[in-house]
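It is worth pausing here to work through a concrete case rather than discussing structure prediction in the abstract. The textbook approach is simple: state the sequence, then state the predicted structure, then interpret. We follow exactly that order.
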Amino acid sequence: RENQSMLITGESGAGKTENTKKVIQYFALVAAAGVKKEDTGKKTMTLEDQIISANPALEAYGNAKTTRNNNSSRFGKFIRIHFGPTGKIAGADIEVYLLEKSRVIFQQRAERNYHIFYQLCSDALPEMHKLCLIQNDPSKYQFVSQGVLTIDGVDDVEEMRITDEAFDVLGFTTEEKQSIYKCTAAIMHFGNSQWKQRPREEQAEAETTEDCEKVAHLLEVDAAELIKGLLKPRIKVGNEYVNKGQNKDQVVNSIGALSKSVR
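Step two, the predicted structure:
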């Protein structure tokens, strides 16, 4: 026996993602063939189910509408499927890399941010609106409304339900799912935070603290410390630590960097 590889490549919109899903589905279905599932009356999820369900979760957080493709993968992935001696799937792991982080805070006019932001704003999980402190209108959020808000033929309500169910199949607890959604919503609130420059000073200040307080609540950090860290970050100079004042542009850049690094 030898390891085998499949390289799926092509230009944007050629169908790489869809072909990858078909390959994974094929291996999963073949591996599951002949395996009898016990009827316990409970819904049980097999390893094959979990491998297939990884796709909706990955696409929600890694795919976006571009000018050439309504479901463009904005990251690369290396998928390993491990087979046992009998040819059945024994496990799988996925490495992701080169995520287009700039899209989190900026989109071209005819494009969208990552699907999850619009799914979360949909009415699929209304209880999440209260939990994440968000409205069902993505146009209210700067980081996700610079391009288009909808995609022809795509129902964000249904897609959100599929994404949420995928997390269930993958074994995420309710608390873990909520933490993921809260971190996602925190990015949206970060984009709405407002700052102003102090007259005749190289120092910014918060014009309003409402959005930063929402971010702090969702990320479970102290709001005052978060604002202080943005306005006067602590840096090391030589052997000592000092607080460095930041102007408005520097604060905005820091927020963008933080938003792109949330994980």
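Step three, interpretation. The longest strand covers residues 89-97. The domain at 16-33+44-190 is CATH 3.40.850.10 (Kinesin).
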